[in-house]
């Protein structure tokens, strides 16, 4: 039986039973193997852009006798996945910018009942910005610690609604009065804003960006009650 670390376990907890699942950037295919071994999924399409990662995936599939349940495929993002093969798409362990580019390149995902599970390693704000701009509602978001680092994992459903881009929300997600792990994530995201604010201070040519960053800080201050911090 495959054992997952907290990061992938968190992603697995968002999976809905008996959906058509595509795991993009699967590498060792640990998540697909876990899902079928646990009976959460009947089958999974496991894709990766690289030959070596797919070789890793093949080793996992063989070692766990899952060849009839996990289909392995070379694919750059969703390019080799057809719309009838996935109504739940998982992308974990990549940067948020690449993740949003992969999703942007597959307009067919913008359809009713499409569920996305996204676990960006960096730049989670790009993922939320993609979701808001493309008719997806962030329906759940959790924070986990794995190997000493804190990550977010986002669950999003397509509803087609046009949403205003709130840069504060993109940076932090919802700002619930979270636990220590959640607070570490928020602080990490806040630090990135503060470093940029400091660098752009008094630079006339960067005024628009400075104002945008200030609006993110205000979202944080309002959401956490840390006004003037
Ligand atoms: C760090 S691993 C993550 C593996 C696993 N999803 C996880 O979260 O532990 C990132 C994987 O994404 C793959 N990858 C990078 N760009 C990709 C793309 N455009 N399309 C598909 N896979 C990609 C890499 O080859 C690599 O195997």
Blueprint of the fold:
Elements: H1 6-13, E1 21-24, H2 30-37, E2 44-48, H3 51-63, E3 70-74, E4 88-94, H4 96-104, E5 115-120, H5 124-133, E6 136-146, E7 149-158, H6 167-172, H7 180-200, H8 207-224
Parallel strand pairs: 1-2, 1-4, 2-3, 4-5
Antiparallel strand pairs: 5-7, 6-7
The structure holds S-adenosylmethionine.
Residues 8, 24-27, 47-50, 53, 76-77, 92-94, 98, 102 line the site of S-adenosylmethionine (SAM).
Could you explain how this protein is built, in words?
- With 229 residues, the protein is α/β, with parallel strands linked by helices.
- It folds into 2 domains: 6-163, Rossmann fold, CATH 3.40.50; 180-224, no CATH class.
- 41% of the residues lie in helices and 21% in strands.
- It has 8 helices and 7 strands.
- It has helices at 6-13, 30-37, 51-63, 96-104, 124-133, 167-172, 180-200, 207-224, and strands at 21-24, 44-48, 70-74, 88-94, 115-120, 136-146, 149-158.
- It has a 7-stranded mixed beta sheet with strand order 3-2-1-4-5-7-6, sandwiched between helices.
- Strand 2, helix 3 and strand 3 (70-74) form a beta-alpha-beta unit.
- Helix 4 (96-104) packs parallel to helix 5 (124-133).
- It is elongated and about 60 Å long.
